[in-house]
């Protein structure tokens, strides 16, 4: 057979090459779109996590109290034979013989009894808090009977594992409260620690003892079970400012350090300043008091428990007084500032000032206008001359002392001095 050669024209070749390049570009575009879409998903996930972090949480301490008073106060309700409810929290009495083991209420002859009968030992009973979630800090039981001797009571998750138990207050490794032969409800016990609990990891009051030797009586007479726990909650309300303080010379600076995402600080650079002011003054026989911008500081920070006292010291004689000075001299004022509102912060601010000899400018000519009507020793003053309509002057001549006696003359304009 003859071999066949297939030839194409240059135009056909260019057309096929264009089609190939087009397909390649489409594939590249699709790949780029996939990468871009993947990047968008990553950014969206990162934004979601950031928003969650920005939302802000805080630790809130809560307390639930079960009133073991025979349900006479209606603060704790008997929902069924095995369930008490208080403030939405559930206490469930569990045993291996539920028919004969139930919560019995007695409220006659002055008695307000909540009894977990028949026997917490013989029927392997425990008390569960089924919907409590958070970190338990303490469980306090008051006015209860745990009769007779030879039994133990535990609070936690597993009575055989000390790492899952709260310990008795005042100890570090004593986890069980012992029963006694007192049949009166005079016992109290507090268990403390840090124990994470949930609906699947329930907090329990548990018991241990010899069922052949123990009655297993556990009851309350007008008592309580108080559980203190912490939960992490979303911050939705602005908790307000939290401040740290620093001071330099005559200025106290309060810096807002709140990290709550719900906090809207409102302060410029998150700071507010309390400034001690004491200005130089001319002698006028009056007392010259220093001052603090307390009102502005309190309005900006919301701090209301703040006090200040002043002491003035004559720098020449070192004499001190609570009264502001009036005599010519150099002084230092010290302000002692105390901030309460749980801050318990104290500091002293200082400022130097002087009362100087002052001089009044006597001027009877309307053409001359002094920049001040009086001046302190060493203070500069400008006197401006304005020519009146009927005056025609080529210049002014200053007559009198132009130097010495604390006078310094500086010429400006067409003025000569004699």
In short:
The chain has 418 residues and is mainly beta. The protein has 2 helices and 31 strands.
Structural description of this entry:
With 418 residues, the protein is mainly beta. The chain has helices at 10-55, 294-301, and strands at residues 57-68, 77-80, 83-86, 89-94, 102-106, 113-117, 126-129, 134-147, 152-156, 167-168, 177-178, 187-197, 203-208, 217-234, 243-248, 251-256, 271-277, 281-282, 291-292, 306-314, 320-321, 329-339, 345-356, 358-360, 368-370, 374-376, 383-385, 396-398, 403-404, 407-408, 415-417. The strands form 8 sheets. Strands 1, 5, 6, 8, 10, 12 and 14 form a 7-stranded antiparallel beta sheet that branches. A 7-stranded antiparallel beta sheet has the order 2-3-4-7-13-9-11, with no helix packed on it. Strands 18-23-22-20-21 form a 5-stranded mixed beta sheet, with no helix packed on it. β15 (243-248) and β16 (251-256) form a beta hairpin.
């Amino acid at each position: 057979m003859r071999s066949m050669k297939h030839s194409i024209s240059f135009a056909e070749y260019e057309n096929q090459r264009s089609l190939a390049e087009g397909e390649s570009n489409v594939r590249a575009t699709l790949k780029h779109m996939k990468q871009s879409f993947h990047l968008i998903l990553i950014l969206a996930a990162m934004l979601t996590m950031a928003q969650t972090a920005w939302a802000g949480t805080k630790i809130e301490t809560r307390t639930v109290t079960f009133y073991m008073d025979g349900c006479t106060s209606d603060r704790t309700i008997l929902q069924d034979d095995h369930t008490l409810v208080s403030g939405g929290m559930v206490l469930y009495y569990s045993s291996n013989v539920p028919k004969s083991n139930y919560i019995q209420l007695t409220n006659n002859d002055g008695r307000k009894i909540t009894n977990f009968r028949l026997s917490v030992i013989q029927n392997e009973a425990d008390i569960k808090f089924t919907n409590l979630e958070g970190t338990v800090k303490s469980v306090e039981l008051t006015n209860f009977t745990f009769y007779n001797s030879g039994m133990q009571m535990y609070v936690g998750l597993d009575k055989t594992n000390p790492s899952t138990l709260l310990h008795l207050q005042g100890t570090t490794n004593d986890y069980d409260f012992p029963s006694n032969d007192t049949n009166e409800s005079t016992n109290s016990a507090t268990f403390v620690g840090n124990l994470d609990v949930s609906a699947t990891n329930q907090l329990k009051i548990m018991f241990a003892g010899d069922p052949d030797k123990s009655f297993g009586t556990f009851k309350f007479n007008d008592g309580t079970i108080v559980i203190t726990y912490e939960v992490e909650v979303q911050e939705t309300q602005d908790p307000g400012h939290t401040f740290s303080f620093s001071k330099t010379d005559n200025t106290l600076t309060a810096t807002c350090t709140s990290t709550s995402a719900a906090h809207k600080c409102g302060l410029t650079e998150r700071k507010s300043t309390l400034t001690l002011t004491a200005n130089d003054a001319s002698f006028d026989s009056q007392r010259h008091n220093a001052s603090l911008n307390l009102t502005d500081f309190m309005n900006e920070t919301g701090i209301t428990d703040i006090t200040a006292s002043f002491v003035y010291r004559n720098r020449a004689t070192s004499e001190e007084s609570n009264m502001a000075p009036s005599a010519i001299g150099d002084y230092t004022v010290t302000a002692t500032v105390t901030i309460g509102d749980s801050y318990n912060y104290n500091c002293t601010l200082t400022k130097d000032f002087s009362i100087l000899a002052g001089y009044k400018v006597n001027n009877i000519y309307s053409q001359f206008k002094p920049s001040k009507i009086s001046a302190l020793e060493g203070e500069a003053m400008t006197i401006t001359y304005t020519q009146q309509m009927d005056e025609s002057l080529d210049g002014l001549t200053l007559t009198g002392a132009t130097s010495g006696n604390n006078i310094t003359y500086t010429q400006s304009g067409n003025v000569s001095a004699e």
